[in-house]
């Protein structure tokens, strides 16, 4: 009997999961990937577009071309999942039955949930770099912006790539120095967190870096309203931060169809998922990869990559009636661009916060410290993304579990 | 481990004053914790949020964030800030005797 795995989403998680599954399962298992469009965006590249360091046509490729032979691709909107009858209803009114469902539809920006964000001033003096249009719009805005207050604001967590807004500040500092107008540009980072980042040791390092680069830090600011014409952010507790140009990271939710699928998601449309096996809490034959899950991990491509191996092993075990492997440890690994051809690297998991040291061993890349080597690593990663990560291949020397060798357990604050 | 005394009973709290053991909390303690957090009187709306926090914690093992509270408690985020001006998720968690919400990563 032919069994069918339906993968919802043809982004990072859906693509690498489908490719890995196709490699390990024989052709008695059919694999179908569903997505609503055919544009696969290399999302880490969006950060560079405003500064002219990348162009949209360099970071967007067709989705279907990233899938191995033997995987069916269905371009359609997803209406809802019916967990009872094990069917996915598509926008064209047809249904796909599944034996196993993989939810890989990531997160969606819900800018409309913040008062005024999409109002007057949007894409004129209020932007985001989290969408291709927004990143391109900012690139244009930087051609006329010749001084004033640039505010970078995270409305609330969770967001994709929590370090990206910090990287934006660092790159902006560099960009305006190169233009020779840094003394006329004020840069302010406005966050709902009580520090620069969520984890204490990294937060201290990154706050130090912001200060070094002359970026003002405003913490515990819960944006209630964006007033474009008045040029101000207003917090729920009545504080204000003025701007001439605002770069806002909007609220994130899971995909809208999750909310239309009874029993599948939580209040924010993320899918409750077992932290170690990646099986959904809703049904045994529903698995989740990447940003779509409600796991206490960063929403990041590296997390999705590290999940891939365990997800595929568990689907294979599920299909053959074996107990699942609970070995996903929350491993995340992120480069943080800091400008001037340098970057930091952080590596962490559920238990271990980002610490200094080296990765993956004591002779590897420096952790939590600016270096040129890390910047080269970040640049190289784009090629890794298309040629190793999406095809579902491992990266030599970098396993799924977080390496402990090379980490300094008693962080020095030098 | 620090302790605090509410309604005549000693309870274990963390450095920031959040309960270590939510089972030690009773409704009688809430007005005292509220006053210490700058809220002089707990209204019916306050209680609605506090009870919601307790239920969510019992079900999910962590208190909700402000955004989830605004979506699910029946009280809008704006009103939540009027009720708990220093930050609804944290203040309500403290008064409701549950640990600090884990928030996000």
Question: Can you describe this structure?
Answer:
The complex is a heterodimer of chains A (414) and B (105). Chain A contains eight helices and 24 strands. Chain A is an alpha/beta fold. Chain A has three domains: 174 residues, FAD/NAD(P)-binding domain, CATH 3.50.50.60; 140 residues, FAD/NAD(P)-binding domain, CATH 3.50.50; 78 residues, no CATH class. In chain A, the strands form eight sheets. In chain A, strands 5-2-1-9-20 form a five-stranded parallel sheet, covered by helices on one side. A five-stranded parallel sheet of chain A has the order 11-18-12-13-14. In chain A, strands 6-7-8 form a three-stranded antiparallel sheet. The N and C termini of chain A lie far apart (62 Å). Chain B is mainly alpha-helical and 105 residues long. Chain B has a single domain, classed as DsrC protein, C-terminal domain (Arc Repressor Mutant, subunit A), CATH 1.10.10.370. In chain B, 44% of the residues lie in helices and 8% in strands. In chain B, strands 1-2 form a two-stranded antiparallel sheet. Chain B is globular and about 35 Å long.
List the helices and strands and how they pair.
The complex is a heterodimer of chains A (414) and B (105).
Chain A: E1 3-8, H1 12-24, E2 29-35, E3 39-41, H2 56-59, E4 60-62, E5 71-75, E6 78-82, E7 87-90, E8 95-97, E9 100-103, E10 107-109, E11 126-127, H3 132-144, E12 148-154, H4 164-179, E13 185-190, H5 200-212, E14 215-218, E15 223-227, E16 232-235, E17 240-242, E18 245-249, E19 252-254, H6 256-259, E20 286-288, H7 301-319, E21 332-339, E22 342-348, E23 357-359, E24 365-367, H8 372-389
Parallel strand pairs in A: 1-2, 1-9, 2-5, 9-20, 11-18, 12-13, 12-18, 13-14
Antiparallel strand pairs in A: 3-4, 6-7, 7-8, 10-19, 15-16, 16-17, 21-22, 23-24
Helix pairs in contact in A: 1-7
Chain B: E1 3-6, E2 9-12, H1 30-36, H2 44-60, H3 66-72, H4 77-83, H5 88-95
Antiparallel strand pairs in B: 1-2
């Amino acid at each position: 009997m032919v069994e069918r795995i339906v993968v919802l989403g043809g982004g990072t998680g859906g693509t690498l999961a489908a490719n890995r599954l196709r490699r390990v399962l024989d052709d008695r298992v059919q694999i179908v990937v569903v997505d609503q469009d055919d544009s696969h965006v290399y999302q880490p590249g969006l950060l560079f577009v405003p500064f002219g360091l990348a162009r949209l046509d360099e970071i967007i490729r067709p989705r279907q071309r990233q899938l191995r032979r033997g995987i069916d691709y269905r371009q359609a909107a997803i209406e809802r999942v019916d967990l009872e009858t094990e069917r996915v209803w598509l926008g064209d009114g047809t249904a796909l039955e599944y034996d196993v469902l993989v939810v890989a539809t990531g997160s969606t920006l819900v800018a409309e949930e913040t008062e005024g964000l999409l109002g007057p001033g949007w894409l004129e003096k209020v932007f985001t770099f989290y969408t291709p249009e927004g990143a391109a719009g900012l690139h244009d805005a930087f051609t006329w912006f010749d001084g004033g207050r640039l505010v970078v604001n995270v409305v609330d967590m969770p967001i994709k790539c929590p370090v990206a807004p910090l990287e934006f500040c660092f790159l902006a500092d560099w960009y305006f120095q190169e233009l020779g107008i840094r003394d006329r540009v004020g840069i302010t980072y406005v966050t709902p967190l009580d520090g620069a980042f969520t984890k204490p040791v990294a937060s201290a390092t990154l706050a130090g870096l912001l200060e070094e680069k002359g970026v003002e830090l405003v913490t515990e600011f819960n944006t209630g309203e964006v007033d474009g014409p008045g040029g101000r952010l207003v917090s729920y507790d009545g504080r204000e931060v003025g701007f001439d140009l605002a770069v806002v990271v909007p609220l994130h939710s899971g995909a809208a169809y999750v909310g239309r699928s009874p029993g599948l998601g939580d209040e924010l449309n993320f899918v409750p998922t077992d932290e170690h096996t990646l099986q959904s809490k809703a049904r045994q034959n529903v698995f989740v990869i990447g940003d779509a899950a409600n796991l206490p991990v960063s929403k990041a491509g590296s997390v999705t990559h590290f999940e891939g191996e365990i997800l595929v092993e568990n689907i294979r075990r599920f299909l053959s009636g074996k107990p699942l492997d609970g070995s996903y440890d929350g491993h995340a690994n992120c480069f943080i661009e800091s400008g001037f051809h340098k970057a930091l690297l952080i590596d962490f998991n559920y238990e271990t916060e980002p610490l200094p040291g080296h990765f993956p061993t004591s002779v590897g890349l420096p952790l939590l410290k600016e270096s040129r080597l890390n910047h080269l690593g970040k640049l190289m990663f784009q090629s890794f993304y298309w040629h190793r990560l999406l095809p579902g291949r491992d990266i030599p020397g970098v396993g799924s579990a977080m390496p402990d060798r090379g980490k300094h357990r008693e962080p020095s604050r030098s | 481990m620090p302790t605090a005394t509410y309604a005549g009973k000693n309870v274990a709290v963390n450095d920031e004053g959040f309960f270590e053991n939510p089972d030690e909390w009773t409704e009688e303690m809430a007005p005292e914790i509220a006053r210490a957090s700058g809220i002089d009187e707990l209204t019916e709306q306050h209680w609605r949020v506090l009870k919601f926090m307790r239920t969510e914690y019992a079900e999910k093992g962590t208190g909700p964030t402000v955004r989830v509270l605004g979506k699910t408690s029946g009280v809008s985020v704006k009103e939540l800030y009027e009720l708990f001006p220093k930050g609804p998720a944290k203040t309500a968690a403290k008064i409701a005797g549950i640990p600090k919400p884990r928030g996000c990563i």
